[in-house]
Design a protein that fits this description.
The complex is a heterodimer of chains A (about 220) and B (about 210). Chain A has about 220 residues and is an all-alpha fold. Chain A contains nine helices and no strands. Chain B is of the alpha/beta class and about 210 residues long. Chain B has one domain (about 5-205): Rossmann fold (3-Layer(aba) Sandwich), CATH 3.40.50. In chain B, about 25% of the residues lie in helices and about 25% in strands. Chain B has helices spanning about 50-55, 95-110, 115-120, 135-150, 165-180, and strands at about 10-20, 25-35, 40, 65-70, 80-85, 155-160, 185-190, 200-205. In chain B, the strands form two sheets. Chain B has a five-stranded parallel sheet, with helices on both faces. In chain B, strands 2-1-4 form a three-stranded antiparallel sheet, with helices on one face. In chain B, helix 2 packs parallel to helix 4 (about 135-150) and helix 3 packs across helix 4 (about 135-150). The radius of gyration of chain B is 17 Å and the shape is globular. The chains are: A mainly alpha (about 220), B alpha/beta (about 210). The interface between A and B is medium-sized, with 27 and 29 residues.
Chain lengths: ~220, ~210
């Protein structure tokens, strides 16, 4: 446990320092959402209808943006070698890294959501619904994204490849995230059904992600 | 130095073969090293010195042959009992010297020694609060050596350990290796330059 908490603390600390990834994601999220009203025009009804989708897209792209460095930085400086050799199972180390990434880069997105909801003419209920779906759904984005990050290390290609690999896995999360938000705001569906599926997606990725990422890292040993 | 003095151990390889990128680097390599002994792996560039260390560390999978450790901790795999000091320093530029060392001590676990004393031993105590980004190549190497002292492992796998170290640093490092061997440790080092301590030579990749 000390090993895992040390890993989580280190990754959060690095992310929060100057040049870390945490702020980049939030700034990107902010940029996407702030620009949207200017692009769509001053139609308040349209904005509030598009609001949840815009927030979800922004969060998805922001998490993709920062995820590709998840293992790459450790691979480049040799830390990954020592992590692989250590007494901590690689699966747990992967899960700890993903958790740290979510805490440093995912959680700030959710905190920023109420502020950004104002820009998109979302009322309290709608903003709350989007924030709740993001809270339930962003772990799925992080943990499936981790598989792509692992493969990116194995295949010695960063960025673009990883986005292409991960995108299909994150589409269901996007669909049910937006569906649950819309259900809470306009109906006619109940909020429960899509939200439960969203939670299920997160839980499945929590289990599958670390194993897939660790398998990919082990396969790519060199 | 409890736990380190008990028992002899032997690290040995039989017919070890290594293939990288479809090319055979070496094959049929036999080697053995017992505790208290340093082995200097010599050979020209590209002869597979680093590959041999990574095979022992479990970071490469041998294409043939076996590597076994007799007399080590039966509860643990060979890589878990090794320290690997590679070309890359495993240091985070955003963290301070102290934080880098504390992280590896916490993460690697096991028997732990005073981090501040290790920093003093490698001559980095004055820079403890400095971010690792500001360290010179030699200082980064010294910080990596402090990791070997803070967390005790019996087997040290060293890849060109003396690069970037100044003369005083090489002397200091020689002393650290001698202490490690005296405690019953085992060192396998890939090197071009003389190690600075009594060592047995293992030549791979033929002559020159």
């Amino acid at each position: 446990m000390t090993a895992l908490s040390a890993l989580i603390r280190r990754d959060i600390r690095i992310a929060l320092r100057v040049g870390g990834g945490a702020l980049i994601g939030v700034l990107f999220f902010l940029t996407v959402v702030v620009l949207m009203p200017f692009a769509v025009g001053p139609d308040l009804a349209l904005l509030s209808r598009l609001g949840p989708a815009i927030l979800w897209l922004g969060a998805l792209l922001a998490s993709l943006l920062t995820l590709d460095r998840l293992f790459m930085a450790d691979h480049e400086d040799g830390s990954l070698d020592l992590i692989t050799m250590s007494r901590t199972p690689l699966e747990l180390a992967c899960a700890a890294k993903a958790l740290a990434h979510w805490l440093a880069a995912g959680l700030p997105l959710i905190v920023a959501t109420p502020v950004l909801g104002l820009l998109l003419n979302l009322d309290m209920v709608a903003t709350g619904a989007v924030a709740l779906t993001l809270l339930a759904g962003t772990p799925a984005l992080t943990f499936t994204g981790m598989i792509g990050a692992g493969l990116a290390v194995t295949l010695h290609r960063g960025g673009l490849l990883m986005a292409v690999l991960v995108l299909p896995l994150s589409i269901p999360v996007l669909i049910f995230g937006v569906a649950a938000s819309q259900a809470a705001i306009v109906g006619p569906m109940t909020f429960g059904a899509p939200f439960s599926i969203l939670c299920a997606l997160s839980l499945v990725s929590l289990v599958v992600g670390p194993f897939a990422a660790a398998a990919s890292l082990r396969h790519g040993l060199d | 130095m409890s736990g380190l003095d008990q028992g002899k151990m032997q690290l040995s390889g039989r017919g070890v073969a290594c293939v990288r990128g479809g090319r055979e680097v070496f094959a049929g390599l036999d080697f053995a090293a017992v505790s208290g002994e340093a082995v200097a792996v010599m050979g020209r560039n590209g002869s597979g010195k680093t590959s041999l260390l990574r095979l022992i560390a479990g970071l490469l999978i041998p294409a043939g042959g076996t590597i076994v450790l007799d007399g080590g901790d039966a509860e643990m795999t060979l890589p878990e009992q090794c320290h690997y000091l590679g070309h890359r320093d495993a240091l985070k530029p955003a963290l301070s010297v102290e934080e880098n060392l504390a992280f590896w001590a916490d993460f690697l676990g096991g028997e732990r020694f005073d981090a501040a004393a290790s920093l003093t031993a490698v001559g980095l105590d004055h820079a403890a609060h400095l971010p690792a980004a500001f360290l010179s190549a030699g200082q980064r190497r010294r910080l990596s050596l402090a990791r070997l002292l803070t967390v005790r492992r019996r087997i040290w796998l060293l890849d060109e350990p003396t690069t970037a170290l100044d003369v005083a640093g090489q002397d200091m490092f020689g002393g650290l290796m001698r202490e490690h061997l005296a405690r019953g440790g085992l060192i396998i080092a890939a090197t071009h330059a003389p190690l600075g301590i009594e060592s047995r030579e293992l030549r791979i990749g033929g002559a020159t």
